[in-house]
Amino acid sequence: MTGSTVVRFVRTRREATVLAMLILVFIGLTFASEFFLTGRNLSNVARQISVVGIVALGQALVIIAGGIDLSVGSVIGLSAVTAAIVSAMTGMPSVGIAGAIGIGMAIGFANGVLITKLRINPFITTLGTLSIARGAALLITNGNPQRFDNWAAYLGYGKIAGVPVQFILLVALTILVWLFATRTRWGRNVYAVGDNARAARLAGIDVARTRILVFTVSGSLAGLGGLLLGGMLTNANPNLGLGYELDVIAAVILGGVALSGGRGSIGGVVIGAALIGLLRNAFVLLNVSGYWQTITIGLVVILAVGADSLNRRSEED
Amino acid sequence: MTDCLLSARGIAKSFDQNRVLHGVDFDISAGEVVALLGENGAGKSTFVNILSGALPRDGGTIRWSGEETVFRDTRAALDAGIIHIHQELSLISSLSVMENLFIGDYMTGRSGFIDRKALAARARELLARVGAAHIDPRVEAGSLSTAEQQIVEIAKALARNARLLILDEPTASLTPHEAEALFAIVRDLRANGVAIIFISHRFDEVFAISDRVVVLRDGRVVGDRPVAETTRAGIIADMTGRAFTFDALDRPAISADAPIRLKAEAIADKGRVGPVSFDLRKGEILGIFGLVGAGRTELLELLCGIRPLAVGSIMRPDGVVPGNSTEAWKSGLALLPEGRKTNGILPSLSLAENVAVAKRQKSGGILDLGAEKSLFARFRDSLGIVSSGPDQPIRRLSGGNQQKVIFARCLASEPDILFLDEPTHGVDVRTKADIYKQIQDLAKKGMSVIFVSSELPEVLALASTVMVLSRGRQTMLAANQGLTENDVLTAAFAQA
Predict the structure, then answer these.
(1) Which residue does chain A place closest to B324, by CA atoms?
(2) Which range of residues forms the domain containing residue B278?
(3) Section A166-175 average pLDDT
(4) Residue A227: its pLDDT value, please?
């Protein structure tokens, strides 16, 4: 890339703004805290990024297709307790893993079918399943946390060569979803459907199937997220993932995905998730009140999107 | 004339380089009903939009009640009493009828709240004046039928003390009985001194209620006569009497033993179009003409499986009849839809993707992006698409170039039947010529084409067979040999 294309990239892509913020925060923390660059802290940060990032990959596809999935936080809770209960019941952790991902997949599929066949707005549909999934998690556990410490939990707490397993999963899934989104017919159809659904349909794209697909992927990844989060804590709490959908959506938006659909990159979403994870870590290291975390993340989202839309306006004029 | 309510002189208007109105003179007096006629694109809508302040004029003067006036916007025209009722009604369906009637001008009591009783009483009075006392002013406007909504629109015009009422195809979606009720109101308004400009494509209505007939053609007034001195044939001659803007293209005859690609037998949907029957042969170009609302787009949707077939049957050589647009493309049909912006382009996606999107749906999951770019390059050269490269988002292109890209999308899927809905709508003359040439060449190579057009010369120049629809019915199906504009228009206005 020549100098001018770099400038253009930075000026026109929200990912670039967010990447710059990420690097700034990283450098700042390196100097501000002696603990930041320790292996232990970095693997903590990696864990914090992983679940948000994995769930955001699915959410990004949904938003690019012109939808939104509010149910992911509740799916995390439900799938965590499902993993714990199913693996305890069957004595086979592998069935627990299948159960966690399967329950997420089922809820995602149900979201997709309700949205496309009954034509209920995605916001309303997933607001409903948000409530239903959380209620189901509380119901089957009677509100009690479940022990979850078999080898399935290893996916959440384990490390390979010092790198958390879930971070490796994030990297692998990012590559997979990126290939899907950029190199496959179905992935490109996701963009087309979000960009102009009518035109996409008239050009022969099966719009309903595309929408069902993205919600199913989002649900499945949220199911995996629940498994990892439960495993990391070796304890599946039915309230796990409460409010998680907001972090996930923030990561997607920070990553440059247009809420109106049709635009966004998978790489950007991971950068967005990384920024959120790093900010959360910063507050812990700098010993600032946790309440400031929440405020700051809100400010960062508004700042990043605002800067981007100012740039875009000057670009379009 | 000194007693004119409105007198327009030399009204001119251009869009970009395209001159739409060339010095239109028009007068209307209080208590007069003037029918404004012309083919699609003759400039009727542009002209009335200038009168109602929706468009600025480039030249000419308007005298309103004897004084020279410029209406800067629709608000100014409304205040003067010029009210334009569009074909698409503008009531806010979630508000009550009375709120709609007085929107922006609610009567408030001393409390500052809306006085609902006074509002309802005035609404009833207005509704009674338009013969619609049966409509409860408190119901939601959206719950009314189209005809009732139309009447409420007119009542709303009265609430604003209309002096000039412009009705743009008011009967397009009304039943004959409802239309008759509307005319009763129009006659009543005329008796009360309201001037009315009435745009319609239905001659019987024109003769029934207007005092004078003004015909526009290519942005000029070509006829202005009292209705008593006018005949149906005379109006058609006025509307069409133009020289061809391009030479008739060379049309090879379709032999009767060419294989049939598609056979439609008495097909119809639920009420908008049909019954329609025809055979489409290899290399045939079927041009479908009809006025706006005649059911042309609906017919294409029916043939492509987008609109459900209520009766009749469609036959294809391979026996596959598509049930939705995905199946249509897979079975060798390709559709260029009407409305490039809303139905055609995928605005943020690249040119290469906009071309490849339909072809992709037939192949496997993994894409060959390099091949898609060279596919685009091929069509860029053959269709003359002006762009900065295959990765450019299509929204940055001009309308004509966008249309070529969508055309390329159709060709890239290698169809055996090409469906084109207003393929040259909103494109410049040069692009038009390019598209005509392409269609001709494709047909010579054996592709069958079905195209819909509002431009009669285009249909006559391009089609090997002409079909005419009138209010959903097929009123003509003939080989394009010796057909005149007059024949086709007569069929388009026919009472099927």
Answers:
(1) A204
(2) 260-492
(3) 96
(4) 95
In a domain, B179, yes or no: yes
| Average pLDDT value over all residues in chain A | 90
Q: Would the CB atoms of A196 and B342 count as touching at under 8 Å?
A: yes
- Note whether B398 and B430 are within 8 A (CB): no
CB pairs under 8 A between A and B: 80
pLDDT at B265: 94
What single string gives the DSSP state of each residue in A39-53? HHHHHHHHHHHHHHH
* Together in a domain, B215 and B316: no
Contact of A260 with chain B, judged by CB distance below 8 Å, is answered with no
Tokens at residue A204, please?
């022969």
Chain B residues lying within 8 Å of A200, measured CB to CB: 346, 357
Rounded distance between C-alpha atoms, residue A192 and residue A173, angstroms: 22
CB contact under 8 A, B343 and A191: no
Q: Give per-residue pLDDT as tens, A210-252.
A: 999 999 999 999 999 999 999 999 999 999 999 999 999 999 9
Residue of A nearest to B333 (CA): A204
- Contact (CB<8Å) B329/A196: no
> Which among B306, B349, B366 has the least Cβ separation from residue A192?
B349
The proportion of chain A whose per-residue pLDDT surpasses 90, expressed as a percent, equals: 67
Percentage above 70 pLDDT, chain B: 95
Q: Is A176 on the interface with B (CB under 8 A)?
A: no
Who wins on pLDDT, A278 or B203? A278
B17-24 mean pLDDT: 83
Q: Report the CATH number at residue B322.
A: 3.40.50.300
Which residues from chain A sit within 8 angstroms of residue B372, using beta carbons?
none
What's the pLDDT score for residue B14? Answer: 85
| B328 within 8 A of B322, measured Cβ to Cβ | yes
Least confident segment among A173-187, A296-310, B329-343: A296-310
Q: Which residues of B touch A262 (CB under 8 A)?
A: 346-349
User: Could B361 and A204 be called an inter-chain contact, meaning their C-beta atoms sit closer than 8 Å?
Assistant: yes
Q: Is residue B245 part of a domain?
A: no
Which of B191, B211, B240 is the last residue in one of the domains? B240
Task: Name the token pair of B456.
Answer: 């009669």
Which of B175, B206, B240 is the last residue in one of the domains?
A: B240
Residues B275 and B413 in one domain: yes
Give the integer Cα–Cα distance in Å for B167 and B212.
15
Looking at residue A294, what is its pLDDT? Answer: 81
A189 neighbourhood in chain B, CB within 8 Å: 360-361
Q: Which amino acid is at B10?
A: G
pLDDT tens-digit series, residues A191-210: 999 999 999 999 999 999 99
| Beta carbons of B367 and A188 less than 8 Å apart | yes
B405 touches chain A (CB under 8 A): no
Contacts of B415 in chain A (CB under 8 A): none
- What average pLDDT does this structure show over B144-167? 88
Query: Residue B103, SS3?
Result: coil
- CATH architecture of residue range(s) A14-308: Orthogonal Bundle (1.10)
pLDDT at B377: 95
pLDDT at B253 over 80: no
Any B CB within 8 A of A203 CB = yes
* Confidence band for B30, pLDDT divided at 50, 70 and 90: very high
Average model confidence (pLDDT) across chain B: 87
The C-alpha of B216 sits at a distance from chain A's nearest C-alpha, in angstroms, of 35
CB-CB: which of A186, A188, A202 is closest to B325?
A202
What DSSP string runs through A191-252? HHHHH-HHHHHHTT--HHHHHHHHHHHHHHHHHHHHHHHHHHHTEE-TTTTTTHHHHHHHHH
Residues 167-206 in B contacting A (C-alpha not used; CB under 8 Å): none
* Tokens encoding A252: 């997607």
Q: State the Cα–Cα distance between residues A74 and A100, nearest whole angstrom.
A: 12
Nearest chain A residue (CA) to B406: A203
Q: Are A121 and A70 in contact (CB under 8 A)?
A: no
